[in-house]
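Supplementary notes for students who missed Thursday's class. We covered one full example, reproduced here. Read the sequence, then the structure, then the short commentary at the end.
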Amino acid sequence: MSDDAINALPLNSTLFFPISGNPVGFNHFAAAEALLRGNPAWEQVVFILSNGLHPDPTKPPAEASPEQRMALAQRAIAEIADAERSHLARLAERSGETLRISPACLYLSTSEFGLTRAVRTAETVQTLWEAHSGPDNKINWYAGSDLIARMADPIIFSGEDLAALSRQCHYAILEREGYPLDGALHVLAAERGCNLDYQASRAAELPQWLTPFLALSSTLIRRAAEAGDPLGAMLPDGAAQLIADQGLYRQGRPVAELMTPQGDALGARTAWQMELDRLTRDLDGEAAAMAGHLAANHEQGRPHTISLVEATVGGLLTQAFAGRSGASRYFRQSRFAYDERAKQSLLDADIKNFSAVSGEMVTALAKGMREQAGTEFAFAESGMAGPPDGRRRSFKNGCCHMALVTPKSVHTEVLQLNPFLTRREHQLSFTVHALRCIRGWLEADGY
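Structure (token representation):
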């Protein structure tokens, strides 16, 4: 749609939605849906695509070309309300609801594409504001609470920009996890003297089928593409297929160069690879601490033998124990039971009435393993590393139940991570958390 046509849309019934991240995913559509539900007067949403250069100096430029990002956005909008092609539409349909967003009310603006420099928010708002007659008109402008927090940074938003935005915008704010809105608004007023005209939507007020998508981001979509994970729960099928066909984001943008102490290059690392490196270091550290704890128990003649049941972490937990020198002093065996039949046959535990991902399941598995292995301690985990594939309704991805049985106690824990992390991130995170829990529980029981 041309900029002239967008400027002709009624201002009071139009929500302007900047898209600084790419590609356009269900996170953007879910936010737009939430805000339209909260304000029946709004009938149109204009997605304003960035030119790929971010005014926040901490944000890298877009990896895909403007043409690629435009094609992805067009494909996503075309399919967003089609339950055959859109996971978001399927979930709404299964819940007996109809999406307010549809191709008929969604528009794309590429007004920033003609500029070869980063475009400040205040510039775009000023252009829209000038296109609509009347100084009292305000632009309905979307912002997440994370952006409100960043508005307190004078490097990103100048005092002049804040003054213009507070005068020209009515903010439609969606509170995001980890960024409490009230606190962000307080800091903005106290440190920058800026008070916004706004209305807020919060996750607790939204339908349950809609809220998981608020944990999604363009960064997580790109990481999933780099990892080769399915994208069907992150954006409509056609856009996901376009990413796969063109190999977009598959290699990832390097953010660091590894060097030897002598200055020799070892290779570039992407943000996803850097996160995996961090989790792997955490895992090595926890494994060493666990080994030291059990080895010390062995030397002191205290209970120390342990066995494991893994269902989700793909051998990482077994490797954490068996990969340490001297593991034979305390580690006896592990079982890998991926599905319900395997759990039943390996341990002969009465689990038929338990959900595969539940505290009851892992408790039964740990008890069965301790009895069969004859160890003093037994640990079991069961979860869903995902990621979601866009076909199943469940959003248990990122959820892992854990249990440790000792001679004194049964300890349980449930870990819930962002469901849209990559499969490998989930598995590494589950394993790190499991090792911390085991050591903490043993210490709590006096072992």
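Commentary. The domain at 3-246 is CATH 3.40.50.620 (Rossmann fold). The chain has two domains: 3-246, 271-444. If anything here is unclear, bring it to office hours.
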